[in-house]
Amino acid sequence: MITFFVAFLVSLMVALVLTLLVRNRAVAWGWLDQANSSRKVHVRPIPRLGGIGIVGGFFAPLCALFLVDSGVGYNFRAQQELVGGLFIGGAVIAALGLYDDLKGAGARLKFAVQFAVALGLYAMGFRIDVIANPFGPELSLGALSLPFTVLWMVGVVNALNLIDGLDGLAGGVAFFGVSTNFILALSRGDILLCLLMAALAGAILGFLVFNFNPASIFMGDTGSMFLGFVLAAVAIKTSTKSGTTVAMLVPVMALGLPIMDTLLAMVRRSLLGRPLFSADKEHIHHRVMSRMVLSHRATVLVLYGLCGLFMLTALGLNFANSGQSAMLLCGMGLVIFVLMRKLGYLDLRRAADVQQVRQRNIRLRTVVKDVTRSVRLASSLQDVWNALRPLAEALDVARQELRFQHESGGQTDGVVFETQRPAGTEVPLEVRIDVKDDEEILGALLLVWRDGRSAINRDEELALEVVADAVAERASRFHVPMEAEPGRVIALRR
């Protein structure tokens, strides 16, 4: 236990120092997560790259074991597949996350790297060969072992990424998963897995000092994907060494919240015709905050409680027999069902509108794709405007305006493009979206509806933000930015 405690303290201190240094450097160098989208919960720019502290904190005590001549150090060095997989795979995933935080990585690149790492781990012995079944005999995967292992790795990596939407949430969720794995490894006398989990727990807590609401730094993809990777890899080793009839169900339950949130997001976006990898504000943490009318911090604490319940269920499954495991799963299933009803995921009154929303969103996605492609090919501001004009008809707006201007010395110079359509006579609803390139306001996209609506729907809002980003990316080459308050503001008024 002393070794585990030392590893925990070393990782905690390293994570504290690294996170503090990264936070200060991120502020100085402008590596900030801007509050320039309605998808963001925070209202001011926050430093990112806090995941560097988690990665450094986790590896620090493990690297020290290569230099220590002890029984634990010898055992650590002897586990070449486990250590090599975690070090090499973890470094690659952390590098991918760092690149995404600094430059932005597309979905194709991220999935390509994640699948490659998962395949490499499979070759090194990280494999899921059987699926537990508490209601009958276990299921041998055979040839399906490879795809199931790869999907597990990639799925958990992205599940932790998706759940990272509130201050302290992803770190806290990961900590409960780490605690579950530590207790399971300790019960079996697995020194190496205990050591790994102690190091990761210290790294997470060191980071959470700065990340719990109100956060002064975010972990970014560097941290969220790295945490998902380590938890997914360790879960495979935990399940393969388990002698219970529910081996793989234990890590699934331990990571129940992010896995459930990811599955809901995939089903929701598929049914509503949204891109699978698009961002929205319909995640579990968003709904808990809005439907239960809770503060940011209270929402995180409620979800911590839910993670604690998943953790206790996972531990119960590990020590229970088949009958008790079935009862635990049924009980947890009932809790999940009640939660889904409470959060509105099972609202049958909206089922009739799903097909209509899906068709509308598919049409909207096609229009946005065509518009953004044309915008990126534009060679002048006039071409940018010509590319945007189909939006007016697609969204049935009465007036559409694109304004580029520069304010200096009380004088305003700029260009304004405008089109009007006969689309209703009701009280107008005006929506303005800033066209913004990093910290510079380039102009604004203005749309006015006269069809009686009091607000635009969420899908239209997200689509307009995508279009505005494409306009900003292209228009920044053609003119001088205007001076304005930082931060995108979407103003809705009648």
Could you describe the largest sheet, including whether it forms a barrel?
Answer: 5 strands, antiparallel
Give the radius of gyration: 25 Å
| Uncertain segments | 480-494
The quaternary state of the protein chains shown equals single chain
Q: Estimate what percentage of residues fall within beta strands.
A: 5-15%
Count up the domains.
Answer: 2
Mean pLDDT: 84
What is the 3D form? globular
| Straight-line N-to-C gap | 64 Å
Helix content: 55-70%
Give the helix/strand class.
Answer: alpha+beta
Based on DSSP secondary structure assignment, what is the total number of beta strands? Answer: 9
Q: What order do the strands of the largest sheet run in, or round the barrel if closed?
A: 6-5-8-7-9
Give me the strand/helix succession. Answer: HEEHHHHEEHHHHHHHHHHHHEEEEHE
Membrane topology: Multi-pass membrane protein
Protein name: Undecaprenyl/decaprenyl-phosphate alpha-N-acetylglucosaminyl 1-phosphate transferase
Transmembrane segments: 46-68, 80-99, 111-132, 139-163, 183-210, 217-236, 248-267, 298-317, 323-340
Organism: Pyxidicoccus parkwayensis
